[in-house]
Amino acid sequence: MAARGKKQSVDDGAIRALLKRYACPLPYHQVRARFMGNIATPDMNASPMQEIHRVWNDELPVFEDKGEAEAFFGTLLHGLWNGLSVHQKRSDPFKLARVKIAPASHAYLGRLARVRREELDGFIDGLFAGQDEMDFPESAHRAIGILGELRALFAATENLAADAPGSTDTSTMEDTAKHLRELTRIAETEINTIIQSCRKARQQMLETYVVERPGTLH
Question: Distance between CA 181 and CA 95 in Å, rounded?
């Protein structure tokens, strides 16, 4: 399903520029997490092209010519998708996007919480590949539940930061920032548990298919 590739061959700046040029409905960090979820999905019918269509709400940009279309899909597939596929290896785990550390403030806490909430939304959307329900290995199922709890915490912090009064104890905000960064590490652990669990499940399904496939008659 997911092509194994080398490290991302197109830099983040080029991918961000492409998403902006073609009015992608989602920010880069969310697209990145969503692709990672779709790479990990146990849905054997999922494909990168289907996920790109879904990201653009099934309304892809209009291209002027074949070359422009090839550049568009090449950047997303050979650049971003194949670069993310290496994170199926235990030795190269997936990391959430880096959010530049800034002095504790409502704006910083809100931004950090929003990015993490959008990333978890994206990962789960990609993992379910457009379906409402899906069977997962038990370890992945547990991890998905934990991600749901973390998503709720990030969303609550995002809302509190937006509605917070003008003055708040700086030390309290610093503690909250540390807490969000710890939750980020937990989220990464659970995401990689899902990636590894689903990778093993896909391998088992492929092995079963090969064993059960009827032989070719000559």
Answer: 12
